Amino acid sequence: MSCTNCGQQTDIKSLPSDCEKYGACSSMSCDVLTVYDWLGNMELPSHQTPFDIYEVRFKNGRKAFFKNVNDLSLCTGEAIAVESSPGHDIGSISLSGELVKKQLQKHAIEPNSDLIKKIYRKANQRDIDIWKKARENEANTQREARLIISKLGLKMKLSDVEYQGDGRKATFYYTADSRVDFRQLIRDLAATFKLRIEMKQVDLRHEASRLGGIGSCGRELCCSTWLTDFRRVNTQAARYQQLSLSPQKLQGQCGRLKCCLNFELDSYLDALKGFPDTKKILKTKNGVARFIKMDIFKQQLWYTYNDTEDYKWYQLSVDQVHDIINLNKAGKEAESLGDIEIVETSSKVSFEDAVGKDSLTRFDEPKRKRRKSRRRNTKTNQNKSRFQKKSGNPKGSNNNHKRSNKSNDNNKKNT
C-alpha cells in the first residue's frame, strides 16, 4: 500500500517507492506530521504482549491516545471508530507499538489514566460515508457561523470547524483577545445546525499551526510541520543575536514573534560567555571610552570616546578589552585605543590569481577573419574595374588580345 503521490509500486506492498517517507505514508497520504515508527520491525520477547494503546490522528494534526480493549488486529494507517462524548469519532492510527510508551511519557500520561478512551471497532463503509458527509458540511457551517457571530457583535474570530465522525457534534475553534460571552451564540448555533456545540479557544500560534502557510523564509511553517511545543519568545532573544528590533522582520504569520528566534539562541549565549560586560567603560590616557557594538562571530568589539567630536569607532578584540578592564581594576589607565586598535587590511584578488595563467577569454569564440579578407578582395576588384573603365579597355580585353597574339604565332609556324 503506497500513497497516491507515489508513481511506482515496490515489491513490499507497505513500502512506497518515491516519496522518501520510508514506509510512513501507509495511511494513503503524504502528511508531514506522519510519524515514522523506527521500532516497528523490532520483535518482542515471547513472553511479552504488544502494547495495547495506539495514537490516533484526526483533522489538522489533532492526536489522542486510545486503548485496544477488544484485542483487535490493527496496523498503522487504518481507519477506526473510537469513543467520544457523545457517540463515536473516526480517525486513523498514526503510531503503534513501543513508541507510544515514549509519547505517553513525553505528555506525562499514565497508561491506566481515565484520559485514555476505548477503541470500538475498525471503521466500516457506513462509518466512512457518514464521516465524509459530515466533513463536507464544515465549510458551509463555518460560513454561516461567522454570519451569526457578526450579527451578535462578538469580538472573536472563528478559525475552523471540525465535525465529529458520527455527525452529532461540531467543535468550533476561535481566537479572541479578551473573554467572550458566547452563551447566546451556542443557543443560536444549536438551533441552526441541530448539533451538539463545543467552543474551544486556541492561541494564535495554534491557529497558525492548524491552518498552515508559507513563512518569510519560503518554507512551510515550522509549527504546522514538525514543531509541537511552543516555547515563549521575547525580544531579548533578538537582542542577543544582534538583530534589528523591527516588527515587520521579527513577526511571524501568527502575529507573534517568530519561533525560529529560539533555534540559535543557545549557541549565541554560549559564545557570549567569553565577552566582557558591555556596561563597563574603558579608562585610557585619551579619555573614557564606551561600548558601541560587537561582532560575535569575529570575537570583536567597537568602542568610542565620549569627549571627542569625531566619534571614531575603534575596533578591539575580546582579549584586548579584558586586558584594559584588568588594568582599570588595578587603578591604571590603558594606552589610547588608536595605538592598539585592529587594522583590517583588505586583500585584493585579481583574476590572474584566481584563474592562473589562462586567459579569461579562452572560452570566447575566435573572431572570424574571412569576412575581412572578402571585403578586401571586393575592394580590389572594384578598384580594378574602375581602372579598366578609365583606361577604356572593356572587361576581358586583355584576354582577347592574348588570344589574338597566340593565333598569329600559329599562322606563322604553318607558313
Report on the architecture of this protein.
This protein has 415 residues and is α+β, with helices and mostly antiparallel strands. Among the domains are: 53-123, no CATH class; 132-202, K homology (KH) domain (GMP Synthetase, Chain A, domain 3), CATH 3.30.300.20; 208-271, no CATH class; 275-340, no CATH class. Helix content is 32%, strand content 17%. It contains 13 helices and 12 strands. The chain has helices spanning 99-106, 125-136, 138-152, 183-193, 204-211, 235-240, 247-250, 265-271, 318-329, 337-340, 351-355, 370-391, 397-414; strands at 53-57, 63-67, 79-83, 88-95, 117-122, 157-163, 169-175, 196-201, 282-284, 287-295, 300-305, 314-317. The strands form 3 sheets. It has a 5-stranded mixed β-barrel. A 4-stranded antiparallel β-sheet has the order 9-10-11-12. Strands 6-7-8 form a 3-stranded mixed β-sheet, sandwiched between helices. Strand 1 and strand 2 form a beta hairpin. Helix 3 (138-152) crosses helix 4 (183-193). The protein is extended. 18% of the residues are buried.
Question: How would you concisely characterize the structure shown here?
Answer:
The chain is α+β, with helices and mostly antiparallel strands and 415 residues long. It has 13 helices and twelve strands.
